[in-house]
Amino acid sequence: MAKIKHNNFLDTVNEVFTDAKQEGVMHLYAQGEKFNGRTIEVKDRSLFHFGTTGYLGLEQDPRLKAAAIDAIKKYGTQFPLSKSYISNPLYASLEEKVCEMYGHPIIITKNSTLGHIGVIPSAVQDQDAIILDHQVHWSVQSAAKILKNRSVPIDMVRHNDLNMLEDKIKRYSDTRKKIWYMADGIYSMYGDFAPISDLMLLSQKYPQLNFYFDDVHGMSWIGKNGTGYVLSELKELSENVLLFGTLSKTFGASGAVLVCSNKKMYNRIKTFGGPLTFSAQLEPASIGAAIASAEIHLSPEIYTLQAELRERIAYFNELLQQTELPLIDQNISPVFYIGTGMPKTGYNFVNRLMSEGFYVNLGIFPAVPVKNTGVRITISRHNQKEEIKGLVEAMEYHFPKALEDTFTNSERVFQAFKLEQKHKETSFNTTTNENLKIQLEDSILKIDKQLWNSLLGNKGVFDWEGLKFLEESFSGNFQIEHNWDFKYLIIYDQEQQPILATYITVSLWKDDMLAPVATSQKIEEERKIHPYYLTSNVLSLGSLFTEGEHLYFNSAHPQKQQALNLLMKCLEELEQPSEAKMIVLRDFQENKEIHNYFQGQGFVRIQMPDSCSIELDENITLETYIARLSARNRKHLRKEVLETENLLEIKIVQNPTSVQLQKIEELYSKVHQNNLGLNTFSFPSKLFSNMAAHPNWEFISISPKSNPVNMIGVMLCYKNSHNTYIPAFVGMDYAYLEKYHIYRQLLYQTIKRAMEIKAKTIAMGLTASFEKRKLGATIAPTYAYLQTADNFTLEHLETQQG
């Protein structure tokens, strides 16, 4: 396994969104000449609207519309001046009314995203630390990460995990002045709450603890004067709390609001808060509408509106409880989430609901883990009971249809969200498993040798003999990371012809294996004290020892879809008992059919380093091979390889002495320790002694002729059953790297050796494609597909970068 590219996360998100767009569920355009809030026109159809964040429907209130129009007439479409110099005449009235709502000083911001960017760097000092709830809104996380430039530590805890939070607080309590915990009041995807009361108790135990709450989804529909969920729980805003609300969404206007009871901090933020100083101020129409909304919030009418919404929420909850639908979190918020598990099921379900006349949102990566895709439904005062009931009936009817269409079932969905199912299903899919036979074994010794080698024997160090070697090497070791579980899967048709075959391992991986080098360096410091910090069990096609096409798949077989479905079932059944946090499918080259299938099953694609290989003609000689290289590459070969070859003693070592074997392991370890770009655990010592005793393994060693006993480089090579030569691992003494161009020399000697033994192919593996291309390797883009139980590890690693 090797390093992904730095911009890969954005590429992955782009792929997921593009897929959803092509399925017709994202990046849509509303139509029509007017909008009433109850319905929305999409694709030439009027749909009941269950996707709004205007929960009280104030955006359609005639008073807000009239105030906005009046403000434009009086002051124009905008007031093009920085607020630091002078504010629109309406601002004073708005600030006065919003301040009255909260009973504390406030700051109006252009929107919550710019507000966070302005407030967090102003409020948090260099001596402080930040701990993020891993589901806190992206805008908060993004603003917090700005402080990395000031060396403020940024950490993360699992969602609402107070035990983990307390451990982090203890970690920073002796070195940091304030510890800021940043969370949402109401979380925008599942509609669940921050445990405000418990957090306040924690702050009494740890006086350094301060809070930054983003309560934009808790605004208006709950609390005194509609000031939101957090304040409704706090009752009074203490000085260790910064609170963000919104003037958009449920408030019906535009902008956001910071509430701060600490006067010293308030003055510092207001005087100079980055975007708060330099951004354009709210447009007159937005201020006018916000003033009208604030007047409603300050009147008894707000409680009537809240009660009307509560009635609809309670009705929706009541109807949902009578169904088998996987509601992810039952609470009193207007946000509901029905899990679908896989993206393909989510696309199907959303499109089915739109065909029935209901508009809902799709919850998708990166807002949720890919396998936790679902339908996000919001209830507003616009919704009437008849369409609420109609939506539930439509979901109850179409949910099993969507599962059937996408070859899955409700048990898989409930399992993905760790929910208890009222009535469990007993079969994976009754329509796709007919006439297929699964062979799943825990040792290669239980697999027919000739059959295995005919399917996967020419791919790498995972022919039958190679896997027997790996089983022996990665079992019975002292350290847990050196013991792997092996599984072998073959799926046959009714004629006993294989459709699909692969081998699977469960092993301990470092979570930062694919992270930037600087991140791994930081994490390795922690591992000096806690060796298994940020490590997880991973279920993988192939293993960390092997590279190449680990999946045999007959794409021409009429039952190929059923075979892939059974592969997914097998992986899911292995995932739970192994306590794997991630499933990795690797190493694939560009294949649209496979890509579409894996993406629909909840996997995200990441680009690996390019795969490198060399095909050798039967009668090729070293001279004819070199002649095929470009003039530039021949020059490189002469200057950096051939000139130093005469200075070196090169040996093919097949039965190394104990001294040689110790040196081989030492040189490999130097490369391993130097390669944090591919941060994996080391291999057990037993592996090297097993190599020395195995007839398929040999070592190409190089030493200076001036000191022939001093081995300075070694290539660890495997000869597989299909006459493929695999330079699997390299070892080098970096003190001689530049003088003798050790790595390039070893690559060249590998090619020479492959020709000597009449190999048909050299599987050069991943990484260093630039060097291998210069020596004639063919380069092919390579991909892996990842599926995680949640996004915590990925997001936590993001906080460690920089």
Report on this model:
The chain is α+β, with helices and mostly antiparallel strands and 802 residues long. It has four domains: 32-55 and 303-416, Aspartate Aminotransferase, domain 1 (Alpha-Beta Complex), CATH 3.90.1150.10; 62-297, Aspartate Aminotransferase, domain 2; 437-606, Gcn5-related N-acetyltransferase (GNAT) (Aminopeptidase); 612-784, Aminopeptidase. The chain is 40% helix and 21% strand. It contains 28 helices and 27 strands. Strands 15, 16, 17, 18, 19, 20, 21, 22, 23, 24, 25, 26 and 27 form a 13-stranded mixed β-sheet that branches. Helix 5 links the parallel strand 5 (129-133) and strand 6. The longest helix is centred in the middle third of the chain and has 21 residues, at 301-321. The radius of gyration is 31 Å and the shape is globular. The model is unreliable at 1-7 and 426-432 (pLDDT under 50). One of its GO terms (molecular function) is pyridoxal phosphate binding. This is Aminotransferase class I/II. Residues 50-393 form the Aminotransferase class I/classII large domain. InterPro entries: Acyl_CoA_acyltransferase, Aminotransferase_I/II_large, AON_synthase_class-II, PyrdxlP-dep_Trfase, PyrdxlP-dep_Trfase_major, PyrdxlP-dep_Trfase_small.
